[in-house]
Amino acid sequence: MMIDTHCHLEKNDYQDLTKIIKNMGNNLMIVSTASLDDLEEVINLCEKYPNIYGTIGIHPEFADTYTEKHLKNIEKYLTHPKVVGIGEIGLDYHYTKENKDKQKELFIKQIHLANKYYKTIVIHTRDAIEDTYNILSQEKAKDIKCNLHCYSGSLEMAQRFIKLNATFGIGGVLTFKNEKKLKEIVKTLDLKYFLLETDSPYLTPEPFRGKQNEPQNIKYVAEKIAELKQININEVYKTTTNNALAQFDIKYPL
Ligand code: NI
Hints:
Elements (H helix, E strand, L loop, with lengths): L2 E5 L9 H6 L5 E5 L6 H10 L3 E5 L11 H10 L5 E10 L7 H18 L2 E7 L2 H11 L6 E3 L6 H8 L3 E5 L10 H8 L5 E3 L21 H12 L3 H15 L7
Parallel strand pairs: 1-2, 2-3, 3-4, 4-5, 5-6, 6-7, 7-8
Helix pairs in contact: 8-9
């Protein structure tokens, strides 16, 4: 079995979402909210498909536009049996640094929700890794787990995050020809720190880079990990699946 631990399956993005989900067979998907208005859509997918779980949260790009009502809605669904984490949340200074304080405030509020409801935190961080690290180390309860989705930081930073109970989501970027840093990280760190993800519909792995991504493409990421670590692909599936089940406290009937 394999688990796509981070994808976005908004029906507006896909011509035939039912088929995309079918393509995964009995493998699991963890669908993450992507906008301020797709919370119900994620919950509906979780309720319709036994192999879909969800993480819900407010992405930093909405730091200026979210309202308390959005946060209350997130909190309401954190006790839903298929909601296994809060995310993706975090900091993104790539598009704007103007609202750093607002981004931090929203991030901290949601970390506190994770602490309160004992949920794994799924983190989006872009051009903001130092602040992300500092806030997490100050605000996150010690026993709460976190996952840095689509990890793009350094090896040294990864080692610091591991001390905060972190794992790293590895996606299509690993298969890109010019990507060196992430390949080094995958070679160096133990497989127990990695989860597979696609971030569909974005970041499509080779050989389909440029096309729309979908969860079943996760196999190309797994293949690349096996090649880099010189291990059998079944070991990649087995270990990353166990990592993900533990990370999100999922007791899927296997
Ligand atoms: Ni994402």
